[in-house]
Amino acid sequence: MSLIKARNLSVKIGQKQILKRINLDVEEGTVTAFIGPSGSGKTTLLRTLNLLQEPSEGTIEVNGTKIEAGKIDKRQIEELRQNSAMVFQQFNLFKNMTALENVAAPLILNGQLPKKEARQLAREVLAEVGLEQVADQYPITLSGGQQQRVSIARAIAVKPKVILFDEPTSALDPELVGDVLQTIANLAKEHITMILVTHEMDFARQIADQAVFIEDGEIFDQGPASELLSGRGAGRISSFVNSLEKVAVEKIIGGI
Ligand SMILES: Nc1ncnc2c1ncn2[C@@H]1O[C@H](COP(=O)(O)OP(=O)(O)O)[C@@H](O)[C@H]1O
Ligand SMILES: [Mg+2]
Predict the structure, then answer these.
(1) Mind listing the pLDDT tens digit for each residue in 40-75?
(2) Ligand 1 pocket residue status of 15, Cβ below 6 Å
(3) Which atom of ligand 1 is closest in space to residue 53's alpha carbon?
(4) Is 33 exposed, middle or buried (0-12, 13-18, 19+ CB in 10 A)?
């Protein structure tokens, strides 16, 4: 059974049609990679799956909670958000809270745990991502990679059914990317359901079960990541995948 099901999902902002009739299924325990050019609608689709963006048409189902465009109430939003956590490109940590407080905050705010237990769990989850040493530090004193791992810890602490990652490494210096990708790979090993927007093609090929290529607000194609992202053949997706590999190689050469 699909954990996430989107049917005919469209998003219109003002007069602009951003997403057009998206149909998507995500099976429990799998990793889905969203791939596509800048401005194609990947972030908007993730935000819509979490109802940070309201759809103009269609339905979303997450773990049995069904939501229909135009008929969304606050209780449904809360229910859906309890099932899905988001990790943003720019970390989005609270600057006035320590790493530990950042991880504990959602647990306390949504009444999942009393303060003391929330802090205890936050410490455990920070240890899981290798950050117990910095638990009492403020975000500004942490590297970008550490900040992103705090935000991953914050996402997993609430034990969501799915974690949505929006280009989690694109704001990081190259030498910090590896630790964050390793943290995400560890979650995949635990069969935590994830959707990941990424330009890291090697990583997507290794970690993702399914890949979804988005272009101009539409799903152009979807299928097994190993096939769709192979870069072989002369199609639209291969040419996109190969253009990214070229940039990656140029980055490395440029750094020598
Ligand atoms: N709040 C908004 N208002 C108007 N246009 C938006 C808004 N958010 C996104 N867009 C537009 O929607 C399109 C898709 O954006 P986005 O989902 O951020 O793409 P991607 O993540 O693939 O780069 C872009 O053309 C962008 O300018
Ligand atoms: Mg984006």
Answers:
(1) 999 999 999 999 999 999 999 999 999 999 999 888
(2) no
(3) 1
(4) buried
